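Why do we care about 3D structure at all? Because function follows from shape, and shape follows, mostly, from sequence. That is the central idea of this module. The next example makes it concrete: a single protein chain, its amino acid sequence, and then its structure expressed as tokens.
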Amino acid sequence: MYDLHYDLLTAMYMAKLNNNFDNIEKWMECYNKNNIIGLTATMCFMSKDEMDREYNKEYYKDSSNIIDMFESSINLTKKYMPKYIDVLYGLEGCDFLKNIDDLEILYDLGVRVVNIVWNEPNKYASGNRDTYGLTNLGKKLIKKIIDLKMIIDLSHANSKTFDDIIELVKEEKKNGKEVYIYASHSNSKKLCDINRNLTDEQIKKIKEVNGYIGVCSNRNFVVKNALKNNVSNKELRRKYIEHIKYIGNIIGFDKVLLSTDDMTFSKGDEDYKKLPIYNYRYIKEELESDLNNNFDKETTNDIMYMNARKLFNKVK
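And the structure:
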């Protein structure tokens, strides 16, 4: 299968900081021809205070340069990742992007996906913990992403930022620009009412710009407070397929992708180990079984592989 959002570069950078690659080596066993054959490996940037709490105070310092951070993490990923895995690299949160033109350097390193905000606001736009939308600088950043033929990621954007990006994308498409856009790890707000999920109207707007949605198998995106309420995996798997059906019926099943946002690797504590619905080592087998029980083989194959492969081929 293809996994549209995994914070693998973050995990690589943390392993480098800690000088301990034991977990990386164990986790790489999950990437094999019978399991994961493609993914978007992202590196996460949020507010400095948030990063100090989420990772450690060494993750980002005033002297840090995200280009150097990306280069070292990508090189480590290439060292450990099997050559046959189809990989796109992504930037989640542009808080510390010093210069918009630095995207050109990141592009040359292999970065193809840009999410301009995490949950917190930054100089380009606001995530879902604030209310303002694209700034003037943010509009320039989106246009740069489009010009480089990178993918715009809408996940984490608040409703104003989301709408501002959609409107700008429509303008650029009218001007003849080719635009690639998706929400990499967001589910249906109608089925699970959390602010990181998408309203029906937002799903329709993504469809209007020929975008995609990566349906996320993190349990708290599938059922609200699932971890707190100890919802069974059997029920969560049923609900996850319900999200795929619901979103696919709006946007089209040719625009549905799969996403784990599986943080057990990058975080490691007990709560994060409980968030994934599927065991990552066997996710292809488990998920394909659930899809085959609900869709014909062609639709299952499209959702598991072909939709993502077609998109990856356009931007590689």
